[in-house]
């Protein structure tokens, strides 16, 4: 990767709303850093750490010209304007000097694939994801899902609504067997938390090996079908790729032990959603905690909205008030690496040739 010489200024553009304190952390990395930041040209945020902004936002003619001038000068960029594949494509093509872009999403690989960049564009601009930044919040959601259905949250809510008072036993997570599908950063953190609660943790990944000490057994993906009938809960923590799309198919869902809990904090396209809905409607599963879906936003006519044994999050579980702070911490480390000519963390691999 080409990095500036000691005497060269490095033009870094902030393309997403960011608190002034975090902007200062970027400036403080090195005296060569020259910031291109015009917050008045960025969309108002909908909530803290929002990277897309209000969708109706439009720059006026003068603002459009200023924005284009900033992009044309930038060598490094923090954030994808609009936080979308379309925004990435427009940015790369409107920024001829751009060499590296730090995305704010852990799943930025999907944005890269969706941008339909040419081989020359992919070779010119390195894109790094925010992988690892959202690990804690996502793992906590998975534990929430496991606890919710172990403690029969649907019945608690129904009894509260009906003002019904009754005593009954509930399950404990301690002693249950959990299967984690995908043992990356999120899956490994789920394993650590689940183990701390006394669960026996199994996992499957591509290699059948892992350095994660919190996992009791690691198997290859082709063993998935034989493991599903023997576990009390399943957590999906896989990214979406050609290899993972639909990997938790109808046959896999049918193989899950009756009464088990299902959690998906990976990507909706990994799971056969129709088969999952059928299993939930028939009561074959105790419940499902879902942060991701086959189509997002979830269509209004989806049965998932009405099912009492579904805990539904609108793909918001990864969001945290500390998100930007953690992304900037990653960016600052990568910025030093870039200036030293070192390998960047979380660089998204692109296939060659296409």
TrEMBL record:
<dbReference type="GO" id="GO:0016491">
    <property type="term" value="F:oxidoreductase activity"/>
</dbReference>
<dbReference type="InterPro" id="IPR006140">
    <property type="entry name" value="D-isomer_DH_NAD-bd"/>
</dbReference>
<dbReference type="GO" id="GO:0051287">
    <property type="term" value="F:NAD binding"/>
</dbReference>
<keyword id="KW-0520">NAD</keyword>
<dbReference type="InterPro" id="IPR036291">
    <property type="entry name" value="NAD(P)-bd_dom_sf"/>
</dbReference>
<protein>
    <submittedName>
        <fullName>Hydroxyacid dehydrogenase</fullName>
    </submittedName>
</protein>
<keyword id="KW-0560">Oxidoreductase</keyword>
<dbReference type="Pfam" id="PF02826">
    <property type="entry name" value="2-Hacid_dh_C"/>
</dbReference>
<feature type="domain" description="D-isomer specific 2-hydroxyacid dehydrogenase NAD-binding">
    <location>
        <begin position="146"/>
        <end position="316"/>
    </location>
</feature>
